[in-house]
Amino acid sequence: MKKGLLWTAGLLLTMGFSVHSQDNSMKLDFDGAEQVINKNIYGQFAEHLGRCIYDGIWVGPDSDIPNENGYRKDVLEALKELQIPVLRWPGGCFADTYHWKDGVGPVSERPQIKNVFWGGTVENNSFGTHEFLNLCEMIGADAYISANVGSGTVQEMVEWIEYMVSDDDVPMANWRRENGREAPWDVKFLGVGNESWGCGGDMTPEYYSDLLRQYSLYARQYGQGKFQRVGCGANGFDVRWTDVVMKNAHRNMDALSVHYYTIATGDWGYKSPATGFDETLYIKGLSQGLRMDDLITQHAAAMDKYDPEKNIGLLVDEWGIWTEVEPGTEPGFLFQQNSMRDALIAATTFDIFHRHADRVQMANIAQVVNVLQAMILTEGDKMIKTPTYHVFKMYSGHQDATYIPVSLSSEEYKVGDIAIPTVSGTASTKDGKVNVSLSNTNPHKAIKVIVDLGSGKVKKVNNGVVLTAPAFNAINTFDKADVVAPAAFKNYKLSKNTLEVTLPAMAVVNLELQ
């Protein structure tokens, strides 16, 4: 058996799938429904990178583009509609070059800064602490701040904490008041560095562990327990990093991050185009995305050695598909299109996060606007919602719902040496309603799935939504914004405790039951 097939067989066993020629079914275990799916799994990430902040979220109050105090109105409304639970900022690699004092006070007096990691552009710092934290309040998202450990100091972090969350009569809080904000903000998460193994300082896990202990001590003292302290976690499958940091500093953090990007080719040197790709790259992208299950399993096992009670959450605070940039755009801006394949990667990844809801307490897709697997793309005064945006909205009913364990049986979808399950799915319950989400990865045929509702007393289907497309590489453009868009779904039949669903080819379906 070839290596690709060996990996696939192992994947199916790990994920709880059984594979049969034509048996596509899912059984819901209502009796085992105990674990809550943390809403923060549906978090977002906004870095000073390319056109994410400037042109994407922020155009300034003097822009001809319709805005609300500098925030793009169209983007602002789309973000509100998405019900974003948490937003991470200012990076990413940018965070460990960012000195927060440059971004507060009168805009005309703020110094310019060169973005050394992403395109070498010069920013005017018009979007800083006030602009970000006010944005979080406007869209109803909790704030996740990444502190500068790579090129900053403990004192700089402490003063930023005081500026944001202190209500005392101290210099930093008083400076905030002078700058127009009387009440402190409610910052829920503080990241102690970002990618400290790479752009955040090129550190060893041993060295970073010592810094984490130092920074976390003062973060706790000055934050007074108002936020979770997030340790910088591993790059992909580097489980040793997790093991060392947990061993040395598990008492000094409330959560630990991990980063994983889907590279369809498996080669960072050439990551494949975002558009016009063939079926081999389609299934490779899906297959590489499914590796998230093994990644979480391995890191969770390392964390369990030092935290068997699972008090420390695992935060996948950067994830998503990373492709080549769009032709003609600045390589350092990481602007890529977003296809039906990417929507399926998002859906199947959420299914994985749900299965690991006992350990995964947050995830932040990279990124929210105009960068990598974005929710929104902008061009001048135009804006479009991507296929991934629609999946996030379709899955929003799972936020803070109780996960219903599922067992899946699926036929294979296979191209060459690569085979993946055709069907993926998840289910949850909240407020007397049950959300069942199903995906069909096969781009050539519809799939009938029999859902055994077990002991669930389901009486009706309230509504159904489907997302599909004319091709697996179909995208939304500024000229044709609804090529991939959700539609009402009726191709189901409910009888007694069984739900029969016929999924269109390459589709994501969500059904709300009651």
What does the secondary structure layout of this molecule look like, with pairings?
Elements: H1 3-14, E1 17-19, E2 25-28, E3 43-45, E4 67-68, E5 71-72, H2 73-81, E6 86-89, E7 113-114, E8 122-123, H3 129-139, E9 142-147, H4 154-165, H5 171-178, E10 187-192, H6 205-223, E11 228-235, H7 239-249, E12 255-262, H8 279-290, H9 292-304, E13 313-321, H10 340-355, E14 360-366, E15 376-379, E16 382-385, H11 387-394, E17 402-403, E18 406-410, E19 412-415, E20 418-421, E21 423-430, E22 433-440, E23 447-452, E24 461-467, E25 487-488, E26 492-495, E27 498-503, E28 507-513
Parallel strand pairs: 1-18, 2-23, 3-6, 3-14, 6-9, 9-10, 10-11, 11-12, 12-13, 13-14
Antiparallel strand pairs: 2-18, 4-5, 7-8, 15-16, 17-21, 19-20, 21-22, 22-28, 23-27, 24-25, 24-28, 26-27
Helix pairs in contact: 4-5, 4-6, 6-7, 7-9, 8-10, 10-11
DSSP strand tally: 28
Instruction: Please tell me the CATH architecture of the domain at 39-154 and 189-194 and 314-403 by its name.
Output: Alpha-Beta Barrel
Please state how the strands of the largest beta sheet are arranged side by side.
Answer: 3-6-9-10-11-12-13-14
Biggest sheet architecture: 8 strands, parallel, barrel
* Strand content bin: 25-35%
Per CATH, the class of the domain at 39-154 and 189-194 and 314-403 reads Alpha Beta
* Low-pLDDT ranges: 1-14
Could you explain how this protein is built, in words?
This protein is of the alpha/beta class. It has a domain at 39-154 and 189-194 and 314-403: Glycosidases (TIM Barrel, Alpha-Beta Barrel), CATH 3.20.20.80. It is 25% helix and 27% strand. The chain contains eleven helices and 28 strands. The chain has helices at 3-14, 73-81, 129-139, 154-165, 171-178, 205-223, 239-249, 279-290, 292-304, 340-355, 387-394; strands spanning 17-19, 25-28, 43-45, 67-68, 71-72, 86-89, 113-114, 122-123, 142-147, 187-192, 228-235, 255-262, 313-321, 360-366, 376-379, 382-385, 402-403, 406-410, 412-415, 418-421, 423-430, 433-440, 447-452, 461-467, 487-488, 492-495, 498-503, 507-513. Strands 3-6-9-10-11-12-13-14 form an eight-stranded parallel beta barrel, surrounded by seven helices. α4 (154-165) crosses α5.
